[in-house]
Amino acid sequence: MGETPSWTDIMQAFAAVIGVPLTIYTLYKLVAKDKERQAEIQNLTVIANQLTNMQIESEKRYKSSKKPNILIFIENIPERKSLKFIFKNTNLNSSLTGYNLANSAKIKNLDIARSGILNNEGSQTFYIDFNYNLQPIKNLKLDIDYSTEEGYIFIQDIIVWEQNGVYKMVPGPIIDKNNSALK
């Protein structure tokens, strides 16, 4: 006959019977916790992406508030053979630090005089004066860059033409030079 099992053998068998289900249950709990952590990480990733998008939108709104609002007036002075453009920035939130006639090298047969930016009662004004020596200007395209105090650069195209002795113009929209749609 065989040996009778000892208490140790019985305890080992009992531990094995209980241990296997407990091990399986523990593994199940670990996997469930891991899935919870993964879901938490996913939620945090979504929140981080939303905060990034909010920051980008906030920057766009801020930059938009700094965009100059430019009124443009034309003075034709035939006796001086001069066509003068007066620019006035009326956006009190936008402080211009400079401007540039980007296509000045392409404008032929004209002497160009420019003023500095003058601050006047909350608005800013400057002018560009074209002196034509030979014949009056028939048409002209101006590419203007406006620089702001914050370092932003905005651009605008202005189309000018003469019609029956009167100068007319169509100023284009003022847009951010770094606009991704322009690249």
What does this structure look like?
There is one protein chain. 32% of the residues lie in helices and 38% in strands. The protein has two domains: 1-65; 68-182, Immunoglobulin-like. A hairpin with a 2-residue loop joins strand 8 and strand 9 (166-171). With 183 residues, the protein is α+β, with helices and mostly antiparallel strands. The chain has one helix at residues 7-65; strands spanning 70-77, 82-89, 96-101, 110-114, 118-120, 123-132, 139-148, 153-163, 166-171, 175-176. Strands 1, 2, 4, 5 and 6 form a five-stranded antiparallel beta sheet that branches. The longest helix has 59 residues, at 7-65. The mean pLDDT is 86. The chain crosses the membrane at residues 6-28. Keywords: Membrane, Transmembrane, Transmembrane helix.
CATH architecture of the largest domain: Sandwich
Tally of separate helices: 1
Helix content: 25-40%
* Strand and helix order: HEEEEEEEEEE
Which structural class should the secondary elements be placed in?
A: alpha+beta
Which residues form runs of ≥5 with pLDDT under 50?
none
